[in-house]
């Protein structure tokens, strides 16, 4: 009589469960939260900002009051804890969670931001905080900035989104009354519409404006999100899974 041995392999559910697409961002968030390189790049950006501001003042002939324009998120305030929260929930971004986070007013400062803006204030240079946060986030945003003592953190200098993410009209409004010496941001759209909003080749526009980076335009590192990611995706109403698949497909390899 022949004996047969049957081997049954049981696969636990957690072995076959697909990884959450939100996990794609784990390294980016950890890099911002823990690496010395992130802090060094922020200090480097604001050191260049200080040098450029001094040179701009020497060459200044404007009769308007001088100012700098800064974005808020990932430029003066660090929101990586929110991004970490979303990843642990298996999400990339949820607007309700974002409002809950901003209402806490717990975002820490980006390295070098406060010292630079205090230096600017010591030279009688105003700061305008130009953000695409919604109006419902206004009070909490102001509270967060004032908690650290950021200069010019008041109603006259905080400009949030009012139905549009296009910052150009708000920049032009500031330029009517002030001489803009430099702009700080983590996204090219924080500087000019030529990079993403005018259907131009962004890489070519960066090359064309290369002398402005580190002088007029001060770019902060942000590996977590930004306009750079939008051109990666083809199609409408894409799920996080769809976007994750397209990100993988867009990788250069050999």
Describe the 3D structure.
There is one protein chain. This protein is 41% helix and 10% strand. It has a five-stranded parallel beta sheet with strand order 5-4-1-6-7, with helices on both faces. Strands 2-3 form a two-stranded antiparallel sheet. Helix 3 packs parallel to helix 6. It is an alpha/beta fold.
Write out key terms for the chains shown.
254 residues, alpha/beta, five-stranded parallel sheet, two-stranded antiparallel sheet, 7 strands, 10% strand, globular
The number of distinct β-strands equals 7
Listing every helix as H and every strand as E from the N terminus to the C terminus, the arrangement reads HHHEEHHEHEHEHEHEH
Query: What percentage of residues falls in helices of 4 or more residues?
Result: 40-55%
- The low-confidence parts are 4-17
Strand content: 5-15%
* Rg estimate, integer Å: 22 Å
Organism: Pedobacter mendelii
Keywords: Signal
Signal peptide: 1-18
Protein name: 5'-nucleotidase
Quick structural gist:
By secondary structure, the chain is α/β, with parallel strands linked by helices.
Topology:
Layout: H1 13-16, H2 26-34, H3 36-59, E1 66-70, E2 77-78, H4 80-88, H5 95-104, E3 108-109, H6 113-122, E4 126-130, H7 138-147, E5 158-159, H8 168-177, E6 179-185, H9 202-208, E7 217-219, H10 240-250
Parallel strand pairs: 1-4, 1-6, 4-5, 6-7
Antiparallel strand pairs: 2-3
């Amino acid at each position: 009589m022949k004996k047969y041995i049957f081997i049954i392999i049981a696969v636990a559910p957690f072995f076959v469960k697909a990884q959450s697409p939100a996990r794609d961002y784990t390294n980016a968030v950890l890099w911002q939260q823990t690496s010395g390189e992130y802090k060094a790049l922020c200090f480097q950006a604001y050191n260049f900002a200080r040098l450029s501001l001094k040179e701009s003042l020497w060459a200044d002939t404007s009769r308007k009051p001088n100012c700098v324009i800064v974005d808020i998120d990932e430029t003066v305030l660090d929101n990586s804890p929110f991004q970490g929260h979303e990843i642990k929930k298996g999400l990339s971004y949820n607007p309700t969670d974002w409002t809950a986070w901003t209402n806490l007013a717990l975002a820490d400062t980006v390295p070098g931001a406060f010292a630079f803006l205090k230096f600017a204030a010591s030279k009688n240079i105003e700061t305008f905080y130009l953000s695409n946060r919604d109006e419902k986030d206004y009070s909490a945003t102001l509270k967060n900035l004032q908690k650290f003592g950021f200069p010019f953190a008041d109603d006259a200098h905080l400009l949030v989104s009012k139905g549009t993410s296009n910052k150009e009209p708000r920049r032009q409004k500031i330029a009517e009354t002030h001489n803009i010496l430099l702009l700080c941001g983590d996204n090219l759209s924080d500087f000019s519409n030529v990079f993403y909003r005018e259907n131009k080749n962004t890489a070519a526009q960066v090359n064309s404006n290369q002398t402005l980076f580190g002088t007029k335009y001060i770019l902060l590192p942000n590996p977590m999100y930004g306009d750079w990611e939008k051109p990666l995706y083809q199609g409408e109403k894409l799920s996080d899974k769809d976007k994750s698949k397209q990100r993988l497909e867009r990788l250069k390899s050999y």
